[in-house]
Amino acid sequence: MRVLIVDDHELFRAGLALLLRELFPSIELLHASTLSQGMSRALGELLNIVFLDLDLPDGHGCSALAELRESRPSLPVIVISADESVETISRCIELRAMGYVPKSSPPEALHAAISAVLAGGVFLPAVSIARLRRDMGTDEAPANGPGIAKSSVSSEISTASELGLTPREFETLAWLVRGLPSKAIALKMGLEDITVRKYVSHLLAHFHLRRRTELIVMLAERGIKLGVPPVTDPAHDRSLSAVERPRND
């Protein structure tokens, strides 16, 4: 597994690196202390995932999220930040971040968060989930609708059958959560765009949701894990980024 950590505090990067090596002894870690260094590595390296701070000396991480959404659409990004405002968390999710981990988290919570995201799950601060659901108008959704797993600290990966999905729907869900628009998912899966759009519609209906941001919040709340994000290739992402993106996934 190849992971990039973009943070200007050397001590925090070192602590996060220790956590990651404890979870994955053979992990290969890349470091960047500025936004420009981080973007250079993120745009040019084979990576499984990026951990990104927002408040960097030469820019704000949201600008990096916006650029990565266009240039590295299949590369999952997890924000790790001292900013815990719901508005910032919501903005990062809209920019296709796969999760948000507050730096104020105690070591055991940070450990659980990192374990979750590296297993293909989504982590959001518990105190923000209710507000996010309320802001998105999903606070009245069924507490345990069809195919929704109950929240769990288990590290086990969910399966398509456990979630009540077909294998293709499950694969679509994994790419959708990682930030790919439907046309790019179609290229990844070797399917027609209209087929993937049908899968996306089925997924949203299955979970009683309307859009990807609501899926992110649901997965975080239920503790669903979709598998370790694969290594993504910058060259392949360039072909994905050339695909016309729909306005809403």
TrEMBL record:
Residues 228-249 are annotated as: Disordered. The modification 4-aspartylphosphate is found at residue 53. The keyword Chloroplast does not apply. SUPFAM superfamilies: C-terminal effector domain of the bipartite response regulators (SSF46894), CheY-like (SSF52172). Residues 158-223 form the HTH luxR-type domain. Gene3D superfamilies: 3.40.50.2300. Residues 234-249 have a biased composition (Basic and acidic residues). Residues 2-118 form the Response regulatory domain. Keywords: DNA-binding, Phosphoprotein. InterPro entries: CheY-like_superfamily, EvgA-like, NreC/VraR/RcsB-like_REC, Sig_transdc_resp-reg_C-effctor, Sig_transdc_resp-reg_receiver, Tscrpt_reg_LuxR_C. The keyword Transmembrane does not apply. This is Transcriptional regulator, LuxR family. It comes from Caballeronia sordidicola (Burkholderia sordidicola).
